[in-house]
Known about the structure:
This protein is an alpha+beta fold.
Amino acid sequence: MSASSSTLASIARPYASALFDLAKETKSVTDVENGLAKIGELIASSRDLSRLLASPVISADAKQAAMEKILARAGAHELVANFIRAVARNGRLFALPAMIGTFDELCARERNEIGAEVVSAAPLSRKQLGDLARTLQSRTGKKVSLDASVDPSLIGGLVVRVGSQMIDSSLKTKLTAMKIAMKEVR
Length: 186
């Protein structure tokens, strides 16, 4: 983990934990999670908004005013709106995406879920994704939510990441390993 991501994580964790505890207390975890997801999507889809949040040159007041407009348009849940206002007042909007990610991790842990990234050479069918999710669930003991993507350069097979563990059964990796092994034989 790099120093900047470590710093972001150390800033994000207490904020996300406090929001999670408050959401649990008010029985609004799902509403807060959905509200933060909307805000996260807005940040991810708008380069200008991302730059606004990260810029040290733009004043905290200007950032707070911009976020107020976004919250009003998004119809954000009251707890989400108050959370973002507090983050803005504290000058921590640059860490908002990390806070949202940490909140999502806390929600997943509470539901005994784990996320898995699946990259395949060709799109997987629903049945294949379901079978893979069940297999991973039996191995991890947790409900698995898959994030599937396609990378034709893999030629065939899959690359699956679950937490810090990676399973690479791609043809590309096998061919590369074979190429290296053949060079050593010479």
